[in-house]
From TrEMBL:
<feature type="transmembrane region" description="Helical">
    <location>
        <begin position="271"/>
        <end position="293"/>
    </location>
</feature>
<feature type="compositionally biased region" description="Pro residues">
    <location>
        <begin position="90"/>
        <end position="104"/>
    </location>
</feature>
<feature type="transmembrane region" description="Helical">
    <location>
        <begin position="503"/>
        <end position="521"/>
    </location>
</feature>
<dbReference type="GO" id="GO:0016020">
    <property type="term" value="C:membrane"/>
</dbReference>
<feature type="transmembrane region" description="Helical">
    <location>
        <begin position="205"/>
        <end position="232"/>
    </location>
</feature>
<feature type="region of interest" description="Disordered">
    <location>
        <begin position="82"/>
        <end position="111"/>
    </location>
</feature>
<comment type="similarity">
    <text>Belongs to the multi antimicrobial extrusion (MATE) (TC 2.A.66.1) family.</text>
</comment>
<feature type="transmembrane region" description="Helical">
    <location>
        <begin position="527"/>
        <end position="550"/>
    </location>
</feature>
<dbReference type="Pfam" id="PF01554">
    <property type="entry name" value="MatE"/>
</dbReference>
<keyword id="KW-0472">Membrane</keyword>
<keyword id="KW-0812">Transmembrane</keyword>
<feature type="transmembrane region" description="Helical">
    <location>
        <begin position="244"/>
        <end position="265"/>
    </location>
</feature>
<protein>
    <recommendedName>
        <fullName>Protein DETOXIFICATION</fullName>
    </recommendedName>
</protein>
<feature type="transmembrane region" description="Helical">
    <location>
        <begin position="425"/>
        <end position="447"/>
    </location>
</feature>
<dbReference type="GO" id="GO:0015297">
    <property type="term" value="F:antiporter activity"/>
</dbReference>
<dbReference type="InterPro" id="IPR002528">
    <property type="entry name" value="MATE_fam"/>
</dbReference>
<keyword id="KW-1133">Transmembrane helix</keyword>
Length: 582
């Protein structure tokens, strides 16, 4: 009896939410108490009459009544009177009321089920996107590895300073302007207007980024003067950094185009294809680095050319894939009037400019740390800080993947007009970020000896990098949470909160503390861990402020604003609406 009872009992446990629902429905239809139903079911399960339990859940009121009146004698329905007929064992009304479970039970079970489903959906986007972003940035680490292993500290310094200046003058600007797509694309997909609006949003973003890129190109051309006279860098180092930045200029086309198409693919659910494309491109990076750095002896300039070639390969794979899966509307040219529609551009800039400010504040602050490290007497300070921040940036690629996933999850719910679902997705994103940040920070502490020797074999650089690992772990812990909560606010359509939080965190708290300690105490090698701790302080402040903003966010208002934004976008088009299938 026990062996036959166990599978059925497990089935009943698995179907418990369905069972409770049907019991409530049966109790209402038959006018009997829920307590009788539950006690009858418990009695049947205790005696091993599992088939009777399942039949009771599935049969209607008339069928059950027929069994009671006709006295069905089959082995399936054979039972005692008290087991088969609840009317014989019906408790008094007060007992039934006491036996009835509170309504909060089903509500809590439903909420728990929704939370688990939301977390699974979030992870299905976050994990592939994080891995894709990691593969996207790893070529930078490959370049540092090739340069660092050549034994030339000057080349490593030039790569670190040159890439920092490129990020400040070019990449941070384009990345910030594209941040509007973290709001627009998921909301359009949630409202089932992706086929109509994604192409318009993508081409509008590309046009605005192309105009802004002119300023970045001018900044790279005069990089040596800025680095020498404004940031106080040595003349020889500034010249080498300028050469590195000029060789990176072709990437200024590939990176924004690739990122724009990625935003559309992620919003439409093509996250695994995006991962495959990024992994394929990454697989070619070591070959390009070896070919240009070693085979042709181009050194750090060859590393920059290899990075430019790598970054322009993404689009060559994205275009045929999008055409194959039905996302060709992204590349279908829109008219000038549609792309530069006054209301549409104003709406786009209203979302992208706060994202641009937030991006500039964070990128400039992090890169300014490298510039400050370059002013110290010991050359190991700049090398150690460069290596530490490169690890932080590699990990941030994972956090950016989680940020994109959170913005997609939240934005889709907002676009679909579900404020409760958006709020639930936001909470899950914050919780998942905290867990991932804690695990990663602990892993950095454990891997301290390996990290110290990852990029250089110079003894001074290795020792100083080892001293920086605890500060790096603290920085990574707050960076993960800060980046992920930015995705939540972006998906909700509130980038202004991000910009204000970054402004206060970096320039209201972190910058004064860093400058005071660095120049007030005239730190040399100790400047490296101090600078990293100050970065962590700025990120922690920004995260707390954004968390408070998220708690006070009016989700109903965000849904209404998204609805109006999507209506304005469709109104600017000259063609009829194309509704997405997803």
């Amino acid at each position: 009896m026990q062996s036959s009872l166990t599978p059925c009992w497990q089935l009943c446990e698995i179907l418990q939410p369905v069972r409770n629902f049907f019991l409530l429905w049966l109790a209402r239809e038959r006018g009997r108490s829920l307590g009788c139903q539950l006690r009858g079911l418990s009695s049947v399960l205790t005696l091993g009459k599992c088939k009777l339990a399942l039949a009771t859940l599935c049969k209607s009121h008339d069928c059950s009544k027929d069994h009671r009146t006709t006295g069905n004698n089959s082995s399936i329905m054979a039972t005692t009177a008290s087991e088969a007929n609840c009317s014989d064992a019906e408790p008094p009304p007060d007992t039934a009321a006491a036996a009835r479970p509170p309504p909060e039970t089903d509500t809590a079970a439903a909420a728990s089920s929704d939370a688990k489903g939301g977390l699974r959906a979030l992870l299905r986007i976050a994990i592939p996107t994080a891995l894709a972003n990691l593969a996207e940035y790893l070529p930078v680490s490959v370049a540092l590895y090739f340069i660092g292993r050549r034994g030339d500290a000057d080349d490593l310094d030039a790569v670190g300073l040159g890439r920092s200046y490129f990020n400040i003058s070019c990449f941070s600007t384009s990345y910030g302007l594209i941040s509007a797509l973290r709001t627009l694309c998921p909301q359009a997909a949630g409202a089932r207007k992706g086929k109509e609006l994604h192409g318009l949003y993508a081409q509008r973003a590309l046009a605005i980024v192309a105009l802004a890129a002119i300023i970045g190109i001018i900044g790279i051309y005069f990089a040596d003067a800025v680095l020498i006279h404004v940031l106080g860098q040595p003349k020889q180092l500034a010249k080498r950094a300028q050469r590195y930045g000029l060789a990176l200029l072709p990437a200024l086309f590939g990176i924004p185009c690739m990122t724009i198409v990625q935003r559309v693919m992620t919003a439409e659910g093509h996250v695994f294809a995006n991962l495959a494309i990024c992994a394929t491109v990454f697989a070619t990076a070591p070959a390009w680095q070896n070919f240009l750095v070693y085979r042709h002896g181009l050194g750090f300039v060859g590393a920059a050319w290899a990075s430019s070639i790598t970054n322009n390969q993404y689009l060559l794979l994205q275009i045929p894939y999008c055409l194959y899966v039905g996302l060709g509307h992204v590349f279908r040219p829109r008219s000038i009037g549609e792309v530069f529609d006054r209301r549409g551009v104003r709406e786009f800039l209203g979302l992208s400019l706060p994202g641009l400010v937030a991006s500039l504040l964070e990128w400039w602050s992090m890169e300014f740390v490298i510039a400050l490290a370059g002013t110290r007497r010991s050359p190991a300070v700049l090398a150690a800080v460069t290596c530490a921040l490169n690890i932080q940036t590699v990990l941030e690629m994972c956090w950016l993947g989680a940020m994109v996933a959170t913005s997609v999850a939240v934005g889709a719910q907002v676009g679909a007009g579900d404020p409760k679902g958006a709020k639930r997705a936001a909470r899950l994103g914050v919780l998942a970020a905290f867990c991932a940040a804690a695990i990663t920070a602990a892993g950095l502490i454990v891997a301290r000896p390996l990290i110290a020797r990852l990029y250089s074999h110079d003894s001074d650089v290795v020792d100083l990098t080892s001293r920086c690992v605890p500060a790096l772990a603290l920085l990574v812990f707050f960076d993960a949470q800060n980046v992920c909560i930015q995705g939540t606010l972006s998906g909700a359509g509130a980038p202004q909160r991000i910009a204000m939080s970054n402004l206060i965190g970096w320039y209201g708290v972190a910058a004064p503390v860093a400058l005071g300690l660095l120049f007030g105490l005239d730190l040399d090698q100790s400047a490296a861990p101090v600078l990293l701790c100050c970065c962590a302080l700025g990120l922690a402040t920004s995260f707390v402020l954004q968390l408070l903003a998220l708690r006070s966010l009016d989700w109903e208002k965000q849904v209404q604003e998204a609805s109006g934004r999507l209506a304005e976008g469709t109104g600017a088009l000259a063609e009829p609406l194309l509704t997405s299938d997803v």
